[in-house]
Amino acid sequence: MARSVIPFGPQHPVLPEPIHLSIVVEDEKVVEALPTLGYVHRGLEMLATKRDYNQMIQIVERVCGICSMLHSMCYCQGIEEMMGVEVPRRARMLRVVWSELHRLHSHLLWLGLFADSFGFEALFMQLWKIREKVMDLNEATTGNRVIVSVNVVGGVRADLDESQVRWIRDTLADVEAAIKSLRSTIMNDSTVCRRTRGVGVLSRQAAYDLGAAGPTLRGSGVAQDMRQLKYAGFDEIAFEPVVETDGDCWARSTVRFRECLQSIDLVRQGLDRLDGGELAAKVKGKPEGEVITRVEQPRGECLYYLKGNGDKFLDRVRIRTPTFANIPPLAAMLPGLDFANVPVVVLSIDPCISCTER
Amino acid sequence: MAIEATPIAPARLVAEVTRLAAEGWRLVTFSSVEIDAENMEVLYHFDKDLVLKNLRVQVKKGGTLPSVSGVIFAAFLIENEIRDQFGVTFEGLVLDYQGKLLNDCVQTPATSPFCRYQVTRKEEVR
Amino acid sequence: MKMLPTILANLFGPPATRNYPFAVREPFATARGELVNDIGRCIFCGACARKCPSQCLGVEKEGTEGVWSLEFFACIGCGVCVDACPVNCLSQKPTHRPVAVERGVIALRGKLPEKPAKKTEKPAAPEQ
C-alpha cells in the first residue's frame, strides 16, 4: 500500500500544451494531484508597458492560438468602453460571425483530441477533416487560418461580400451535416461511453465554489455563459446556454458537441443581420481610467482588467483566462480515479496552458 | 472612467470574503496593479448571476496580505502567481509554492520584478 | 459500428488529402503572406515602422536616399503596416515567403521624394 508520485507531463501525447501534474497514487488509484505551471510563460502582460495600446491587439491575440479572436475582441471592447467609442452594427455582427466560427473550430479540435485521448483515432481524423473546412473559411475571409487578426479598436478591419456570405452558408450546411452524422458515435458509442461516463465527476456545488468556467461549469448543471451579457452583436441574437447535469466527462463532451451546432446557428443569425454600415468607428484620444470586460471564450469566461492613464502605453493589462480558473476543479476531480483515466479527465477541462501562463 | 470598487483594509479582508462566499458570490480572480513607486493595489473580483462586485486593497510593494485560500480554495493559484510576479506575499496560503510556481529551479526574488520601471526613452525605431 | 456509413464512404471515395508537392492549392485572394514594398512609390514617412507590433521595420533617411528595412524573421504578417501606409506602396502577397536558413534584413533603397520648393519671392507687383 505504498504511495508513489508519478509525474504527468509536461510532455504527454494527450496534452496540446505543457503542464506538469505530480500525481500521488496508491496502487493505481489517484490520491492527490499537484499542478505546476511555468513551461510556456512568455510575460505577455509585461509587454503592455512596451507596446502602445494599438500594437497590444496583435500581442493579446497571441496569448492563445485557438481562442485568439476572442482575446482581441475582449481587449478591444475594454478599450472602446474606456474611450467611449461606439462600434457600428455591421462590425458587431461581423465580430459575432468570426467569434462563433472560432468557437466551432475550437470545439471540433477538442472533440478530436478527446477521441484521440482514449485511442479512437478514426473519429479524431474525421473531426479534424470537418474542421479543415472551417479553417478554409477563416483564411479566405480574414487572411489567416489561426490567428485571424481582424479586430481594431472601433470595429473590424476585414469585410464579407455577398459571394463570401453565400459560400459561408454553403460550407456551414456541409459542416452541420457532417457533424450530425457523427453524433451517434460521439454520444452513444459503447467504447466512448465506457471511458467517459461516470469518470471525473464534479458536483454542481463543487463546480461553482471552485470557480470553474465554461463547459466545465455548464456540464455540471450551472447555466452561466458570458454571452448572456449581450456584448458585440448578442444583444439582437437569441441565445440560451447549453447545460448538462451529469458533471462527468461525457457531460462536458456533450456540452461542447451541442455548442458546435449552436455556433453554426449563431453564425447564420449573425449573417442574416449584416447591414450596410461602417466597418470601424473613428477613435480619438488616449485611454484613461479602469475597465473590466468579460467574454465567453470556447473554454469559458475570460476577464480583462485594463487600466490607462492618458498615455498611449496602458498601465496594466490583466488577463484571467478560463483554464486558469479550471485548474483547481481539475485538482479536485482527480482523487479517487484509476490512473489510466487521468489523461481523459485532464483533457476534458480543455486545457489551454498557453492561455493560463501568458 | 472608473469601476465601482469598495476599498477595504487588509485586516478585514478575510471576514469580507467569507461573508461574500456565504452569500453565493463566486471569486473570479484578483488583479494587482502598481500605483506609484511604493504602493500597489490588489483588486478582488466577485461574480454572481453575471453581476460583478470588486474590492480594492492597498498594499506596499513587497508587503503581505492575508490569504483567502482557506475560504476559497481556488485562490491559491492566483496568490502564488502574484507572489511570483509582484513580490506580494500572502500569509496563511493553503498550498504554498514558495515563489517557485513559474520557475521551479530558482526562487524568484522577493521584489517586484514585474512593475514598470521609470525610464523615459524614445520609442526605438530600427 | 455507428461509424460504419462514414467508414464505407471513406473507403470507396476519393482521398481527403491532396498530393502536396505535386498538387498545390491556389491561395485565397486575401490571404496574408509575404510583405512587399514598391520602393519607387515609398515616401519614407515611417508610419509603418511606428505601427508595427513586432518592431521589425526600419525607415531611415541618408542624404537624398531613403532606406526601408524589414527583419523578415520577426515579421508576423499581421498587415497593420499595409493598412497604415498613406501611399499604399506596401502590400502582401497571398503566398508565404519561401523558407530561409539564415536570419537577415531586407533593405531597399529609394530616392526620397522632393519637397515642393517654398515660394520666397513676393508675387509680382501689378503693372501700373
Written overview of the protein:
The complex is a heterotrimer of chains A (358), B (126) and C (128). Helices cover 46% and strands 14% of the residues of chain A. Chain A has 13 helices and 8 strands. Helix content of chain B is 17%, strand content 29%. Chain C is of the alpha+beta class. Helices cover 15% and strands 19% of the residues of chain C. The longest helix of chain C has 9 residues, at 4-12. Chain C starts with a helix and ends in a 17-residue tail after the last strand. Residues 123-128 of chain C have low confidence and may be disordered. The A-C interface holds A 51, 54-59, 122-123, 126, 129, 136, 139-144, 149, 157-158, 181-182, 184-185, 188-189 and C 2-3, 5-7, 16, 28-32, 51-54, 76-80, 83, 92.
Number of helices of chain B: 2
Q: Strand order across the biggest sheet of chain B?
A: 1-4-3-2
| Fourth CATH level, the homologous superfamily of chain B | NADH:ubiquinone oxidoreductase Nqo5 subunit
Order of helix and strand elements from N to C terminus of chain B: EHEEEEHE
The helix fraction of chain C, in percent, is: 10-25%
Structure summary:
The complex is a heterotrimer of chains A (358), B (126) and C (128). Chain B is built from two helices and six strands.
Draw up the topology in text.
The complex is a heterotrimer of chains A (358), B (126) and C (128).
Chain A: E1 3-8, E2 20-26, E3 29-36, H1 55-60, H2 68-83, H3 89-117, H4 121-142, E4 151-152, E5 155-156, H5 162-181, H6 183-188, H7 190-196, H8 204-209, H9 215-218, H10 249-272, E6 288-297, E7 300-309, E8 316-320, H11 322-333, H12 342-348, H13 353-356
Antiparallel strand pairs in A: 1-2, 2-3, 4-5, 6-7, 7-8
Helix pairs in contact in A: 2-3, 3-4, 3-10, 3-12, 4-5, 5-10
Chain B: E1 6-7, H1 13-22, E2 26-34, E3 39-48, E4 51-60, E5 64-66, H2 75-86, E6 89-91
Parallel strand pairs in B: 1-4, 5-6
Antiparallel strand pairs in B: 2-3, 3-4
Chain C: H1 4-12, E1 35-37, H2 47-51, E2 57-62, E3 65-70, H3 80-84, E4 90-92, E5 106-111
Antiparallel strand pairs in C: 1-4, 2-3, 3-5
